Amino acid sequence: MAMKVLGISASPRLKGNSDLLLREALNGAESAGAQVEYIRLCDLNISPCVECNSCYKTGRCRIEDDYQMVLAKLIEADRLIFATPIFFMNVCAQAKILIDRCQCLWANKYVLKKPLITNGEHDRRAMVIAVGGTKSKKMFDSVRLTMKYYFDVLDMQYVANLFINKVDDCGQIKKHPIALKEAYRLGSELVSSATPPPKKTIDVELT
Ligand SMILES: Cc1cc2nc3c(=O)[nH]c(=O)nc-3n(C[C@H](O)[C@H](O)[C@H](O)COP(=O)(O)O)c2cc1C
User: Fold this and answer.
1) 86 pocket-lining for ligand 1 (C-beta < 6 Å)
2) 153 with 109: CB under 8 angstroms?
3) pTM greater than 0.90
């Protein structure tokens, strides 16, 4: 069976920089034989976590919106490519809303001790694409930390980052000499299951 790769695009800009990189990474994954699916968070209705903590008892988020559909896809995926612009030194709000809603996975894993993703032998891996407009690179540290905790609750190994700074205008990434090629390469490598996951997360930082 083909490996399932889920691509999540968090940018509010359709065909913005992180979105274009994600599409290229998914092309790479598809070329390596995976079945890919692309989701754009701005097309969905996902409200923020209200901290009702009902998931601590039920294991389920009680807000009925598009999150439930995304959660099902997150649980099914073998690989995840999560793409976000940098907003105020971290992932954008659309990304953070989805991440916070996954508190029910945290509750299942750490409170109820009944992980939703039960098969511990399931080889699940994830990578991050993030683009910032400024010359700073400090924001990538915040992204690393947020995504480390997120992928832990998803029971996914954090295998790679593609971080790009100094790219600001919508679609400007198309003029970058190698960024799209790197996205394609990382997307294709993500699905080569013959390769064991790297011991340390691969960091590709481009300017
Ligand atoms: C609300 C907002 C906050 C931003 N904050 C940062 C920031 O903290 N650091 C940075 O380098 N760029 C920042 N930017 C610039 C974006 O990261 C940049 O335009 C990026 O290319 C957007 O990616 P996208 O096209 O995938 O949406 C910000 C942009 C907006 C709209």
Assistant:
1) yes
2) yes
3) yes
